[in-house]
Amino acid sequence: MKYVSIIVSFILSSYFMTAQSVDLSILKSINKNEMPCWDKTMKLTSKSIYPAMVIAPSSIFLTGYFQNDKPMMRNGVKTAAAIGLNIALTTGLKVSINRARPFAQYPNDIIKRDEVGKFSFPSGHTSTAFAMATAATLSTKKWYVAVPSYLYACGVGYSRMRLGVHFPSDVLGGMVVGIGSSLLVWQIDKWIQN
User: The pTM is what?
Assistant: First the structure.
């Protein structure tokens, strides 16, 4: 039994070291080279999440209000709830996991291009963008809303890596938390309505 646990520990540690190496390698390729104009665009993309967090639920709610569509108004409230849940989950995970930012772990390899807090996993900007994209898709069920919403969310995730503040695994974790938050809120609403 002792030997089995040693072998399992060795295999798991080898896997995680390889995964970290791939994570860093991808980030280095995205983060390298100075491109001032592109980097300003990436900062704007990242910062656009703050007004979007207000605009997304408000616009869904107001669309329902002006069209006298009660389910759409409810979708606006659910979108706000999904964003709130997402922020709570992301913050809790960041503090619990306590992963350092890539520029702090690898100061010679990663260029820091934005001011951020201490913790890296998961990406809060990315999780919020994917929570909004999923909520908008569930609210409208229209491809012409879903496609731009998810493209925007992907752009936010990419911007966080370009700015050197998140690993690719942070962005992937943010995607999962964001999508999951919206799906969970919609499922809870179904249970409440039934």
Answer: 0.86
* 182 CB-near residues (< 8 Å, 6+ apart): 79, 82, 86, 130, 131, 134, 135, 138
At 116, the amino acid letter reads V
Span 84-103, pLDDT tens digits:
999 999 999 999 988 889 99
Tell me what pLDDT residue 136 has: 94
- Cα–Cα dist 92/54, whole Å: 22
How crowded is residue 34: how many other Cβ atoms within 10 Å of its Cβ?
Answer: 8
